[in-house]
Design goal:
By secondary structure, the protein is mainly beta. It has one domain: Immunoglobulin-like. It contains one helix and 14 strands. The strands form three sheets. It has an eight-stranded mixed β-sheet with strand order 5-4-8-2-1-10-13-12, with no helix packed on it. Strands 3-7-6 form a three-stranded antiparallel β-sheet. A hairpin with a 3-residue loop joins strand 1 and strand 2. The longest helix has 29 residues. It is globular, with a radius of gyration of 21 Å.
Length: 200
C-alpha cells in the first residue's frame, strides 16, 4: 500500500513538472522570446518628414514544420528622449485583402500572435508613425539575430518628403525618382539602421 502511494505521488510530481515545463516552453514561443517559425524576408519603406517618420514594413514568416504552430511576435522600436514611442501602430496579415491582427502591450512591448498551418507562409504588414524632432531616426535590424538564420532578402527604402537625407550608416543608392534604397541578400545585420536628414 505504501509503495502504491509513493508511486502515485511520484506520478503526480511528474505530471506537475511536465505541465510546468510545457507552460514555460509555450510561453517562450507565444511571447516571441524563442522563435519556432522562420523569418525569411522583409521590405521596409520609410517616409521621412521634417519632424516624423512613417514606417510601412512587410515581414515574411514561414512555418517549416508539417504541423500547425502558433508564434508570438513583438514589434521592436528605438525609443529614447529624442525618439518618441510610435503611434497609430497597426499589424495586418496580407492576403488578397488585408486582415487586421490584434496587438497587445505586454511586458513593455507591442506583441501579436500568428497561427500557421503546416508549411504555411504568412506576410505581415506593420505600420506606425514616430515623432523624431532631432531629425534622425533608428530602425532596429539586429532583432534578426535571435532567429539564428539570415534573411533571404531585405529591401530598405527611404522616401524623403521635403527633406534631404544627409547620413546613413548603410550605403544608399539614389534612384531617379528620389527614393534611396539598399538591398541585402543572406542578411544577418550587425548594426541597426541609423539615418539623418535636414529640411530643404
Amino acid at each position: 500500500m505504501i509503495n502504491l502511494l509513493r508511486k502515485l505521488q511520484a506520478n503526480s510530481y511528474f505530471y506537475i513538472y511536465s505541465s510546468l515545463l510545457f507552460c514555460i516552453i509555450a510561453l517562450l514561443y507565444l511571447s516571441g522570446i524563442y522563435p519556432i517559425v522562420r523569418f525569411t524576408n522583409e521590405q521596409i519603406d520609410i517616409q521621412v518628414y521634417p519632424e516624423y517618420i512613417e514606417v510601412d514594413g512587410y515581414y515574411t514568416y514561414k512555418n517549416p514544420f508539417p504541423f500547425s504552430v502558433v508564434q508570438g511576435l513583438s514589434i521592436p522600436f528605438a525609443v529614447d528622449t529624442t525618439h518618441f514611442m510610435p503611434i497609430q501602430i497597426s499589424a495586418k496579415q496580407v492576403f488578397v485583402e488585408e486582415k487586421p491582427i490584434p496587438i497587445r502591450f505586454i511586458m513593455g512591448k507591442h506583441r501579436f500572435d500568428l497561427a500557421f498551418s503546416a508549411g504555411e507562409q504568412i506576410v505581415v504588414r506593420v505600420q506606425y508613425f514616430q515623432y523624431v524632432p532631432e531629425k534622425n531616426a533608428c530602425y532596429i535590424l539586429t532583432t534578426t539575430k535571435p532567429w539564428e538564420s539570415p534573411l533571404v532578402e531585405g529591401t530598405y527604402r527611404l522616401f524623403p518628403e521635403k527633406v534631404r537625407i544627409i547620413s546613413s550608416n548603410y550605403l544608399l543608392q539614389s534612384r531617379r525618382d528620389g527614393i534611396l534604397v539598399f538591398n541585402r541578400n543572406n542578411f544577418m545585420p550587425e548594426n541597426n539602421w541609423h539615418f539623418a536628414w535636414e529640411v530643404q
